[in-house]
Write a structure and sequence with these properties.
With 257 residues, this protein is of the alpha+beta class. The protein has 8 helices and 4 strands; from the N terminus they run ααααααββααββ. It folds into 2 domains: 53 residues, no CATH class; 149 residues, no CATH class. The longest helix has 16 residues. The two termini are 26 Å apart.
Length: 257
């Protein structure tokens, strides 16, 4: 089976398809905060009694000059520490290439990856080589950390989603694509931000018209010439790409816009 022709057909069919609340209850004002002590003082009729010599007047007590000490102002509630925004995996998995900006460095040396990223990369490749798609299951995230596998309805069993994206019933075509993608060079995008991500293949972060001849040969290991023509119309690489966070979470493996 030609691994690349099936993805080409599927890329064509995917064209159109893939084409913080909190409330605070508060009292009416500072006086209300001291309503209970004030009521107690009133009940024993001590408003007109000066405080014993050498002591301070209690809050709300009338002193001989007819005035009452001002009530202490309640401390303002401490501001909540700003929360770091959650990573938007739908966003970081979509191509956003700055045609005029500097090109990201294309990296081939896996030793330059942070250890958690390198470990996840190697585990995914090992599982893909096995031919058993179930071996990917323990690597796919859960809950808020689940691996993005589709821009559409991604509910359901992730392995079944991967099988559904494959041209064969066992999901071996998608395993072949995954392995080929992770064998390519990679880029580090948005370093030092909550959306920092390591993405394979590097074509995801480079304008297609800035690829040199050698890089186009590497691209054709993953897509066909027809795929490339389609992607040029869109303006960016939109075939399968895989992203791993600096913490070693497999963030996404998707194709499309």
């Amino acid at each position: 089976m030609d691994v690349r022709t099936k993805p080409a057909e599927r890329l064509s069919s995917l064209g159109g398809r893939l084409a913080v609340l909190f409330a605070v209850s508060c009292l009416s004002g500072p006086v209300a905060l001291f309503s209970s002590p004030a009521a107690a003082l009133s009940e024993i009729n001590r408003e007109d009694l000066p405080p014993p010599e050498g002591t301070e007047a209690a809050p709300g007590t009338i002193v001989p000059d007819g005035t009452a000490p001002s009530l202490p102002s309640p401390e303002a509630p401490a501001e909540a520490a700003p929360q770091e925004p959650a990573t938007d995996r739908n966003g970081i998995a979509r191509p956003d290439v700055d045609e005029e900006g500097p090109l990201p460095e294309v990296i081939y040396n896996l030793d330059r990856l942070p250890e958690p990223v390198r470990r996840m990369h190697d585990r995914i490749v090992e599982a893909a080589k096995s031919g058993d798609i179930e071996k990917l299951r323990p690597l796919l995230g859960l809950g808020d950390s689940k691996t993005l596998l589709s821009f559409g309805d991604s509910e359901g069993d992730p392995v079944q989603i991967l099988k559904g994206n494959s041209g064969d019933e066992e999901g071996q075509e998608i395993l072949a694509i995954l392995e080929e993608v992770l064998n390519a060079g990679f880029v580090q995008l948005e370093p030092g931000t909550p959306n920092e991500i390591y993405v394979w293949p590097y074509f995801f972060g480079i304008p297609l018209d800035k690829l040199d001849a050698r890089q186009r040969v590497e691209l054709f290991k993953i897509v066909t010439a027809g795929d490339l023509d389609d992607m040029k119309q869109f303006g960016a690489y939109i075939f399968y790409r895989a992203g791993i966070t600096p913490e070693g979470e497999w963030a996404f493996f998707v194709a499309g816009e």
